[in-house]
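SEQUENCE AND FOLD
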Amino acid sequence: MTIAVLRLLKDQERRLLAGHCWIYSNEVDTRATPLKGLEPGQTVAVVGHSDRWLGYAHVNPHSLICARLISRDRARPPGPALWAERLRSALELRARLYQRPFYRLVFGESDGLPGLIVDRYADLLAVQLTTAGMERERAAILTALEQLLRPTAIVLRNDIAVRELEGLPQSVETVLGTAPETLELIETGAHFLVSPLTGQKTGWFYDQAENRARLSRFGIAGRVLDVCSYVGAWGVSAAVRGAERVTCVDSSGPALERLMENAARNGVAGRIRPLAGDAFEVLRGLRDGAERFDLVILDPPAFVKRRKDAREGAQAYQRLNRLGLEVLEPGGLLVTSSCSFHMDREAFLGAVQQAARRAGRTLQLLETGQQGPDHPVHPAIAETAYLKTFFLRAL
C-alpha cells in the first residue's frame, strides 16, 4: 500500500527532531503536499523540506494540530503489531508501579499512542479516542486491548469536547461485555464507588492519587474543607485518615450524593458535611459566616483551557486561592492544584502568592506535586506535564 507523503516547510522539523510529535497546519508545505487531499485519520509519511525522513503520522487536515507522529522507525508503520507493542510497554510500567489494577493504563503521547487514553478499573477498561487517527484505528486498538488484558467490559467514553476539534461526534457506548453502573476501587485505604459510564472524564481522577497519598505526612486532623470535591477522593480520604469534620463543596448534586455514599461506605458519613453550589459563592459564604478550617483543599477544573485564556484563568485561580486562604486558620495547610497545561508551574505559584498577599498571609511552600507515574511526562512535550499541586503552610 502506498503511503502519502506530508512535507514540511523549511526549518519546521526542529521540534520533531527534539522529540515532540505534533505538527501544526502552518508548518506543512501545502504547495508540495496539499492537506485538502488527505483524509482525517489517514497515515502519512512525514519528511522535512530537504527530504529528511521524520516518521509516520496520523493526519487530520481539518485540525490545527494537523498530524501526530506515531512511529519514527521507517520499518514500523502504524498497525496492529505496533499497537500491541506499545500497549504491552504501557502495561509493564503500570504493573511495576501498582499492586492493584486501578490506574491510567495509557496516557496518549507519553506512551507513544497520541490520541488514546485508557483507564483501568480491574476488569473494566474505559477508553477515549481523541483524534481522527485513533478513531480510524478503533477496531485494531480494541482488539489489542482485549488480547492483552482479557477484560470483561470495555466502555468507550468518547463524550469529550476535544473530539469536536477533530470533527468527531461525542458518544458513550459499551463495546464489550456489560458495564456496571458502579464499581469499587480502593485508594489509600478508602473504598469508593465510581461510575465508568456517567462519571466525570472516565469516572475517577487517577492523576491526583499520589498527591492524595502524600497528604498524610503533613497530618490530617481538625476541620477540613474540600472544594470541588466531586465524589470525595480528597474529602472522604481525609475523614478516613482522622479529620474530625470535613466540609465538601461541589456544584453537582449527584456528585455529592455519591460522595455521601462513599462516606457511608467508609463509616465516616457523620463527619462529612456536603455543600452544593458554586465554589466561589460557597467560599464567600463560609468566610462571611466566620467559619475556619485547619486544612483547605482546592482542586478545581481547568480555568485556562486555551492559551488566550491565560490572563482570565490566572485571575480565577487567584480569586479561588484568596478565598481559600481567608477561611484557613493561621498555620493551616493549603493544598491547591491546577490542571491547566497552558499555565505553567511558575505562573500558577505566582497566582497563589498574589492571592496570599491580598489575603494578608505569608506562605511557606512545603512540597510540590504533579500527576502520578501512570501519567508519565514526555520530556519533549510540555503539554504532558499539566498537573501542578502545591502543599503550602499559611502564616
Q: What stands out?
A: The radius of gyration is 23 Å.
